[in-house]
Design brief:
The protein is an alpha/beta fold. The protein is about 30% helix and about 20% strand. It has helices spanning about 45-55, 65-75, 80-90, 110-115, 170-180, 195-200, 220-225, 265-270, 280-290, and strands at about 1-5, 10-20, 30-35, 40-45, 100, 125-130, 145, 155-160, 185-190, 215, 230-235, 240-245. It has a 7-stranded mixed beta sheet with strand order 7-6-5-8-9-12-11, sandwiched between helices. A hairpin with a 6-residue loop joins strand 11 and strand 12. Helix 2 (about 65-75) runs parallel beside helix 4 (about 110-115) and helix 3 crosses helix 9 (about 280-290). The longest helix has 15 residues, at about 65-75. The protein starts with a strand and ends with a helix.
């Protein structure tokens, strides 16, 4: 059994993994996952992806969803989120005037940064298209409800943490198009998501019902989505759960991102030093970039 890859139209093998929906999704009692040998893209049944694109919902993003999601979101924001932020700031090749957390959920990364980096909060934004109720989200003033292109400003760096595994290829193309519209040349973004190599060792990540994970991206799969919109995609050495997208990049295709941490833009380096918390985020950025090499 095989399916056509939604990215490169090659034959994708499978199903190599199947998940029962336990009667919670009558349209799809079982969801099969396939993997493309050409671009290493892992995807749920194409019929399911089309159903989602047409407005089908794996689960409602209601109060019950956010009640279960708030604590994991807080843990990500006050831990890995801070590390990805610091890493992105050091990798960026242009001064950062505006930084955005894409799909920020309740906006807890803004809360974490307001504690660790209060001196830079006028430059840091979060955007969420499907937010939790007001009493479940941050009260930081730079939390924006809507789409990226509605923010009406240009960004030079950002993060997107645990978001794109929820998106179909059509949805991610739309996000890439919007991101290109709001990016200055050389704007750099870290996407934190389990890549194919990671998922091969943890099939539980392919969870369409509880976690809403319907796709799993590789560096090559991400290139097929982002390159048409002007982005260059880089893998991050040692990390099977993140990649970098750089808009109108001037770097070589084989650029070693990690070497950038020793020659950061001076303004960005200063951004990671705060009168309140000192150099903790600068040190975190250095160490997290090197930790998996």
């Amino acid at each position: 059994m095989s399916e056509e890859c939604p990215l490169c139209a090659q034959s994708a093998k499978g199903p190599f993994h199947a998940v029962s929906t336990q009667g919670r999704l009558k349209e799809f009692p079982e969801i099969n996952y396939f993997e493309c040998d050409v671009c290493n893209f892992i995807f749920a049944d194409p019929e399911l992806l089309r159903w989602v694109d047409d407005g089908g919902a794996l689960r409602a993003y209601d109060s019950s969803y956010w009640t279960s999601e708030l604590e994991p979101a807080r843990q990500r924001s006050f831990g890995p989120g801070l590390a990805r932020f610091a890493e992105a700031v050091l990798y960026a090749r242009v001064p950062i005037r505006h930084f955005v957390d894409i799909g920020t959920g309740p906006g807890y990364l803004l809360d974490a940064l307001s504690i660790q980096l209060p001196s830079a909060m006028d430059r840091i934004y979060g955007v969420e298209k499907f937010p939790p109720p007001p009493d479940m989200r941050t009260r930081q003033p730079n939390y924006f409800v809507g789409s990226l292109k509605e923010m009406r400003r240009k960004f030079q760096a950002g993060t997107c943490i645990e978001v794109i595994e929820h998106l179909t290829p059509k949805m991610l193309r739309s996000l890439a198009a919007d991101l290109a519209e709001v990016s200055d040349p050389q704007a750099l973004y870290i996407f934190n998501t389990a890549l194919t190599d990671y998922v091969h060792n943890d099939l539980s990540y392919l969870d369409p019902i509880e976690r809403g994970h319907i796709t799993c991206w590789s560096v090559e799969a991400a290139r097929k989505i982002f390159q048409p919109y002007g982005f260059r995609i880089f893998g991050i050495k040692g990390k099977t759960w993140a990649f970098v997208a750089e808009y109108r990049s001037q770097a070589a295709a084989d650029d070693d991102l990690i070497s950038r941490i020793w020659t950061p833009v001076e303004e960005n380096k200063k951004m990671l030093h705060d009168p309140h918390s000192g150099s903790v985020l600068y040190v975190l950025g250095l160490d997290t970039a090197r930790a998996y090499t």
